[in-house]
Q: What sequence folds into this?
């Protein structure tokens, strides 16, 4: 079986790590790794390959940043050349980023089978660029590997045939369970009681008013507890271009994006996490660390019902109320989620081996 696995951004690297490890155990699987280059620098890309022992990509499309149309179109043009040369049996895309959409569309036009890992998640918010990517990739995929049972309902609602849907668990959690112990042993970046903050959603950071509201909330929280903020490059640019002054927040420490192990270590040792990320809602749940999700909706509702996640939007009163409860020791506890057991990659590979 000849597979092409596609990655482009930080969360893709984390998910593909456990899948590549698993396929490498099977001599009858040739797994070609294509990196689109959507994330490209040392901190957003290279360090993940090293720390997660992901082999260097066989092919790097070197696309880099750009508008959505530009990024998607450039990836499609370059990826088509790869597909025509390699003629794989299957293209694997993970998650909901532009790289996944571009490569799935390209494969679909060439009648090459597509597997979507992390299919069926829905925020039901079409203003989110990732939601468009999710819906389209699922429509054109042949194998839909889901992380939670609710995803199946979402797919059936969109008329996807149930024979294409496979409940396999969560690759991001496979990778977390595999590296948790190592991450716990590295040198801690922050000490004492602190929270971790991450922000990168366009709806939160691209608009001056929302970012200013969020920074107001962060100002209040840091007056109670220290905050460590590994800042995403797009957020850093926005803070600079809006001329926000963060210097007077004495308890807020801003650092460059962290590597995987450093970030997991920081989360594990924190009191709670504030984030607008998708994957971090899942990782904090399994690590049993309270997570306040600064968004109006989540495509990962199971992290709220069975995990440690609170969906708050950017409502200051609600957020400060939850922070108070967490500090008092009244946080939600992780209640376990079906198949988030570190064996998702194994299940995916065994299904694919039956099919090809
Ligand atoms: C992308 C994904 C988002 C995912 C996130 C994880 C889409 C639509 N968005 O958002 O779903 O949650 O990745 O981080 O695919 N930049 C660097 N170095 C890099 C990469 C980017 O400095 O290695 C800067 C560039 O200025 C770029 C900006 O970050 O313009 C944003 O990068 P981009 O890939 O467009 O989107 P993300 O916000 O990272």
A:
């Amino acid at each position: 079986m000849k597979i092409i696995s596609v990655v482009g951004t930080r969360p893709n690297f984390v998910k593909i790590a456990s899948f590549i490890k698993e396929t490498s155990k099977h001599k009858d699987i040739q797994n070609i790794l294509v990196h689109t280059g959507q994330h490209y620098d040392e901190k957003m890309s290279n360090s993940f390959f090293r720390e997660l022992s992901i082999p260097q990509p066989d092919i790097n499309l070197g696309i880099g940043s750009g508008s959505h149309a530009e990024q998607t179109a450039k990836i499609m043009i370059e990826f088509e050349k790869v597909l025509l040369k390699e003629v794989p049996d299957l293209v694997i895309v993970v998650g909901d980023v532009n790289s996944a959409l571009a490569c799935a569309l390209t494969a679909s036009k060439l009648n090459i089978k597509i597997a979507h890992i992390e299919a069926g998640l829905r925020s039901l918010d079409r203003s989110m660029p990732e939601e468009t990517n999710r819906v389209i990739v699922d429509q054109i995929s042949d194998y839909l590997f889901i992380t939670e049972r609710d995803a199946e309902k979402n797919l059936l609602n969109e008329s996807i045939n149930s024979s294409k849907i496979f409940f396999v668990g969560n690759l991001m959690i496979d990778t977390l369970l595999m590296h948790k112990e190592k991450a716990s042993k590295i040198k801690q970046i922050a000490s004492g009681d602190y929270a971790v903050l991450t922000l990168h959603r366009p709806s939160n950071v691209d608009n001056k008013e929302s970012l200013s509201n969020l920074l107001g909330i962060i100002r209040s929280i840091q007056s109670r507890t220290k905050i460590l903020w590994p800042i995403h490059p797009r957020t850093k640019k926005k803070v600079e271009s809006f001329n926000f002054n963060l210097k007077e927040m004495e308890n807020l420490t801003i650092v460059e994006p962290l590597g995987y192990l450093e970030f997991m270590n920081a989360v594990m040792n924190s009191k709670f996490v504030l984030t607008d990320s998708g994957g971090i809602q899942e990782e904090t749940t399994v690590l049993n660390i309270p997570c306040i999700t600064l968004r109006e909706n989540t495509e990962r509702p199971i992290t709220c019902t069975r995990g440690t996640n609170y969906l708050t939007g950017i409502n200051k009163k609600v957020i400060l109320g939850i922070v108070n409860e967490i500090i008092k020791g009244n946080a939600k506890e992780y209640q376990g989620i079906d198949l988030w057991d570190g064996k998702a990659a194994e299940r995916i590979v065994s299904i694919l081996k039956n099919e090809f």
